[in-house]
Amino acid sequence: MKTKLYNYLNKPYAVVLVMLIAPIFGFIDRNFVFFFGLGVTFLILKESKFDWARFGIGQKLTGKTVLKSLLITLPLFLVFMTLIDPFLQNWLGDYDLSSVEDIKGNLVGYIILMVIMWVFAAFGEEFLFRGYYMKALAELLGNNNKAWLLSAIITSLYFGISHIYQGLSGVVSVFLWSFTISLLFNKNRNNLLLLVLIHGLYDSIGITLIFLDTDFGISEWVQQLF
């Protein structure tokens, strides 16, 4: 049974069907959309005898990759926090961060959320959205530069909409952020771990600021400019 399912999921168009079916699980719980896709991805991984390179993990984690992730994450976070996010919130409304606000001043909650974020957001989302959805979709569309660009747009929209619970500002911000790192994946198609680190470091900064209940007033200052 597993072999037949694996053979079916190996079809080039299977990724499209998975992306169309996954949102249906959102009627049960929004997290099921993610876990359905992730489950399919791990099934493919297992049946392919753990061919990690198939999902863009073809390079070992090195100090150079860690340093590169830091050099990308810090300016990326500053651009979004000081320019993009304040602009979006000014025109589209504030983010809905109610799902994580209970970690403010809560050290235990903060640590637990950090662990969950690194496992399911940093690794899980990159493995699913870039390693499977974007890579498989690009290969389906022709595996050329135009195909990878179109795949980056489609999967970033898909990723942004999956964050609808954060409000319209959240959807647009997540789309722009996702598209940015999707372009990085286009340039580093065999080094998904770079994106995992960028995602994890980016979210770590954001979660830490929520825990400390501060953004140092930067976003409010910039928001006045708009």
Automatic annotation (TrEMBL):
InterPro entries: Rce1/LyrA-like_dom. Residues 110-204 form the CAAX prenyl protease 2/Lysostaphin resistance protein A-like domain. Keywords: Hydrolase, Membrane, Metalloprotease, Protease, Transmembrane, Transmembrane helix. Pfam families: Rce1-like. The chain crosses the membrane at residues 12-45, 66-87, 107-124, 145-161, 167-185, 192-212. It comes from the Bacteria. GO terms for molecular function: metallopeptidase activity. This is CPBP family intramembrane metalloprotease. It comes from Paralabilibaculum antarcticum. The lineage of its organism: Bacteria, Pseudomonadati, Bacteroidota, Bacteroidia, Marinilabiliales.
